[in-house]
Design goal:
This protein has 311 residues and is mostly helical. The chain folds into 2 domains: 3-180 and 278-307, HUPs (Rossmann fold, 3-Layer(aba) Sandwich), CATH 3.40.50.620; 193-272, Tyrosyl-Transfer RNA Synthetase, CATH 1.10.240. The two termini are 33 Å apart. The protein contains 13 helices and 5 strands. Helix 1 (16-29) links the parallel strand 1 (3-8) and strand 2. The strands form 2 sheets. The chain has a 3-stranded parallel β-sheet with strand order 1-2-3. Strands 4-5 form a two-stranded parallel sheet. The longest helix has 30 residues, at 278-307. The structure holds adenosine-5'-diphosphate and tryptophan. Tryptophan (TRP) binds at residues 5-9, 40, 43, 129, 132-133, 141, 143, 147, 150.
């Protein structure tokens, strides 16, 4: 069976961009693979320095996973920091790649372009992500467009290791669906936790209403493009055509229709989510960590042998 893996950072509340770009593709595909779904808490540490917030976010993200349709019996759901082999392998990759190679990283370049000082964790971030992926011989990685480069980095790391120490790692392939590669936010830019332009995935109806009502409407043309771009994620374009034709220029009516459609999608998941306790989450992560650790350790035994630290 081929292997599928993805991960999301517990750096804030998940939004519909995360859902359509990464989580839903995982949910749609995972039954046909041996599947791993991570909460990448050490990656979140590159931007979050509030322990209570991180702890709470980890619990919330796992609830989101299960509510969105991932059965913990059919996929290994685990937290990155529970499997120390990830940071161990990341170090080995750090020693194989060059500084100029990492300097091409988008996340790092963006920080520098904004005049901010990136931490060393952000700089080597792609090698931790490569370790996440390669430890499990992952074939396919469902992600949004912004992660394409990171999966390329993982391929490079696999390749460098294989050339240097002999065939060890599978080269993974990203899976990016064109229609959801970049979900726009309420301002028309990419929806992102860090841009304050999100529609929360499990927000209350009031929160969703507030977010949708704040979508920037361009006054040129008959169709509010930013509203439509989000609407076509939840309804087919054929279904939307008559609605947008009948309500040309009535932005409020179209936004209200969008709120209803998002609500219809989320309400059943929200209900399921309410039945998952913090204790359930801790048990899921405990079971997942145990399974992930076994696999990761088997791979690391081979790696330690190959690089020459096992005597
Ligand atoms: P954010 O940018 O909100 O911090 P993350 O970097 O944690 O999101 O991304 C988690 C996953 O969700 C990744 O696979 C990423 O590609 C995907 N993703 C995030 N934002 C979007 C978006 N606007 N459209 C499509 N996919 C997205
Ligand atoms: N870098 C990804 C993001 O910000 C999160 C991530 C970490 C990830 N490790 C991964 C995604 C492994 C897929 C596979 O969204």
């Amino acid at each position: 069976m081929k292997r599928l893996l993805t991960g999301l950072q517990p750096s804030g509340t998940l939004h519909i961009g995360n859902y359509f770009g990464a989580l839903k593709p995982f949910v749609d595909m995972y039954g046909e693979y041996e599947s791993h779904l991570m909460v990448v808490d050490y990656h979140a540490l590159t931007s979050l320095r509030k322990p209570e917030e991180l702890r709470a976010n980890i619990i919330e993200v796992v609830k989101d996973y299960v509510a969105a349709g991932v059965d913990p019996k059919k996929a290994i759901i685990f937290k990155q920091s529970d499997v120390s082999q990830h940071t161990e392998l990341a170090w080995i990759f750090d020693c194989l790649v060059t500084v100029p190679f990492l300097m091409q990283g988008h996340a790092y370049k963006d920080k520098v372009a904004k005049g901010l000082e990136p931490n060393a964790g952000l700089f080597t971030y792609p090698m931790l992500m490569a370790a996440d992926i390669l430890l499990y011989d992952t074939d396919v990685v469902p992600v949004g467009q912004d992660q394409r480069q990171h999966v390329e980095y993982a391929r490079e790391a696999a390749n460098k290791f294989n050339i240097t120490f002999g065939q060890t790692f599978t080269e993974p392939q990203e899976k990016i669906f064109d229609s959801v590669a970049v979900v726009p936010g309420t301002d028309g830019q990419k929806m992102s936790k860090s841009y304050g332009n999100t529609i929360p995935l499990f927000g209350t109806k009031d929160e969703i209403t507030k977010a949708v009502m704040s979508i920037v409407t361009d006054s040129s043309g008959d169709r509010p493009e930013h509203v439509y771009a989000i609407h076509k994620l939840v309804r087919t374009e054929n279904e939307l055509a008559p609605l947008y034709e009948e309500n040309k220029g009535s932005y409020k009516v179209l936004k209200e229709a969008l709120i209803e459609d998002i609500e219809n999608l989320i309400a059943p998941m929200r209900e399921k989510r309410a039945s998952i306790s913090d204790e359930d989450v801790k048990q899921i992560l405990k079971d997942g960590a145990q399974k992930a650790r076994e696999r990761a350790e088997a791979k690391m035994k081979e790696v330690r042998q190959k690089v020459g630290v096992t005597l």
